[in-house]
Amino acid sequence: MIYIHIPFCRSFCTYCDFYSEIASRCCKDEQSRFERFASALSAEIASYAGVEAGSVNTLYIGGGTPSVLPLSVFERVVGALRDHGFGGPYDEFTVEVNPDDIVEKGEAYVEGLLRLGVNRISMGVQSFDDEILRWMNRRHDSAAAREAYAILERAGVPDISVDLIFGLSQLSDMQWRSTLRQALEISPSGALPAHISSYQLSVEPGSALASLVDRGVWTEASDEMCARQYDILCSELRSAGYEHYEISNFALPGHRARHNSAYWNHSQYLGLGPGAHGFLDGRRFWNNPSLDSYVQAAAEGDFSTVRGSEDLTSEQVVLERVMLGLRTSDGVDADFLRTHCAAPALASALAAGDLVPVAIASGNIVPVGTRFRIPESRFFVSDTIIAELI
Ligand code: SF4
């Protein structure tokens, strides 16, 4: 399982704190900058030749905004993966895109991605309200999101996921319901998107939004409002036939994201690119978030200058397995919880209905009581429930 971080965006969104550099359309050197990045990434891939990247056969190219890259860069990256023992076909190969790139580059670009083995596209739509999109400093408007979706469908992308954001103080419940309905109706063919991810807006330190809050220019939505909008999200998507398989993720039957599901199962993965994180052999590692240092490390043939790592203690492993697993509808193995949680805390969570037995996991009926999960109605307060348990 491989994650590749693409450190470029055309502009920065108000709420975002992911590592990224501005990629300018006007800059004549942009193409050579992308090529330098591709060379450095290929060198990093080569540096891992022979390493076992976990048992899950997926590739996820995220960012940043991968869709700012030309197809030639994707070709080089996929070629480097193949040449160093990480080649496809992958069970799932996802690329994140922004709607405006898809509208600008059209069907031929998407077909090029499909030829490289991409079989899933995750598109950051975020809202269908143009005023809110402008406030978010997104580059696209709602019409572009619809047009991009139509292009992805016409090109034959088998799996499309749409990202949405709720919990903004200026987003009314009515607008949120309307956003969800427009997401469900985004396809000109009338088909539902295979997958929807929806995140509550959070104020990340260092983001433009954090400075708006600090200056008193913008106020966060109340917990009550966020909880209400989360309920609306759950009920609208449940009625439309989606399976709510992780706190922020909804899939039509058979369309769960395999790559992200593997994160929640605490699977091993290789993280590549500046700012990427990975997890191999009980060790977390990461590349510093600096494109220049990354390119320089590649030129010097020594990535150790930009890589950090830490061994997870057994307590950290338990904590992560419980925290990640209880985010999902499959929950966590009951014996694992009995072994690692204090008996009174576990008994009290079960008595209060904060944890319930899982009847169906991954489509297979398993004996009731072998796994415990947080029920959907309490997903919104899962952080509190998990904190009580561990
Ligand atoms: S949300 Fe996506 S497009 Fe916006 S700045 Fe962050 S990584 Fe870039």
Number of domains: 2
CATH class of the largest domain: Alpha Beta
Mean pLDDT: 94
The whole-angstrom Rg is 21 Å
* Backbone structural class: alpha/beta
Bound molecules: iron/sulfur cluster
Written overview of the protein:
The structure is a single chain. With 390 residues, the chain is an alpha/beta fold. The protein folds into two domains: 2-264, Aldolase class I (TIM Barrel); 315-389, no CATH class. It contains 14 helices and 19 strands. The strands form five sheets. The chain has a nine-stranded mixed sheet with strand order 9-10-8-7-6-5-4-1-11, sandwiched between helices. β9 and β10 (249-251) form a beta hairpin. α6 packs parallel to α8. The mean pLDDT is 94. Residues 9, 12-13, 16, 18, 20, 63-65, 98, 124 line the site of iron/sulfur cluster.
What distinguishing features does this structure have?
globular; TIM Barrel; binds iron/sulfur cluster; nine-stranded mixed beta sheet; 14 helices
What is the compact description of this entry?
This protein is an alpha/beta fold and 390 residues long.
What is the element layout, followed by pairings?
Layout: E1 2-6, E2 8-9, E3 21-22, H1 30-47, E4 58-63, H2 71-83, E5 92-97, H3 99-115, E6 120-126, H4 130-135, H5 142-155, E7 159-166, H6 173-184, E8 195-200, H7 208-214, H8 223-239, E9 243-246, E10 249-251, H9 258-264, E11 270-272, E12 277-280, E13 283-287, H10 291-300, E14 307-311, H11 314-325, E15 332-333, H12 334-340, H13 343-352, E16 356-357, E17 360-361, E18 364-365, E19 371-373, H14 382-389
Parallel strand pairs: 1-4, 1-11, 2-3, 4-5, 5-6, 6-7, 7-8
Antiparallel strand pairs: 8-10, 9-10, 12-13, 13-14, 15-19, 16-19, 17-18
Helix pairs in contact: 1-2, 1-10, 3-5, 6-8
The structure holds iron/sulfur cluster.
